[in-house]
Amino acid sequence: MADDPRGGFVDRIEAIRERWHRLVADVGEERMELPGAMGNWSFKDVASHLTAWRRRTIDRLEAAGRGDPSPPAPWPAELVGGEDDPINAWIHERTKNRPLSDVLAEADATYDAFIAAVVALPPEDATDPERFDWLEDEALVDPTSAAIWPSTSQTSGDGWPAPRKAAGSSAVNDGRRGCLVRSRLRPWFANN
Fold first, then answer.
1. Please, which pLDDT band fits residue 12 given cuts at 50, 70 and 90?
2. Cβ distance 166 to 157 under 8 Å?
C-alpha cells in the first residue's frame, strides 16, 4: 500500500485507536459507569454511542466493498432522516445495560473492522468524492489531507465520520485540539 492513499488513512485510524486506548486507560474501569461523563451519560454510555455510529459507517463501507447498496440503518425507520437526538436516545436505551467488558471489546473491535472495510474498497472508490452519497461529495480518503476525515465539521468526537445529519452538532474534532470526547470529559475527570 506504499502508493495507495488508503495506507495513510489506515495509519491515521491506528493513531486514533492509540488515542482511544490512552483515554480508556486514563478513565479507568472504576469510573466508566459513573454518570456525568457527558450529561447524564457514563463513559460506558459514550463508548456504546460512538460504537453504534461507527458500526453504521462500517456497515456502509462493507456493503460498498461487496458492491451492495448501503444497508438500512439499524434504528427504526421512523428515526431515519430526522434529528440525531432520538437516534441517540434509541441507541442509549438498547445499550445502557450491556456489560462494560462487552462495550469496551466492541468499541475496540470497530477499529479492525473499519480498517478491513477501507482496505476492501478499491482505491478509486476510497478517493472518489462522488462514490458515497452519505459523504455529501467528499472522498472517504483525501490523499492531500492529514485528517482522518476530510470534513472536520462532520466528524464525531473521535475523528470518525459523523452521521450527516449532525450539521448542527457541536461534536467537532478539528484535528488540532485532539479528541473532543477527551476534552468534554476533563471536568468529569476532575470530579471523579
1. confident
2. no
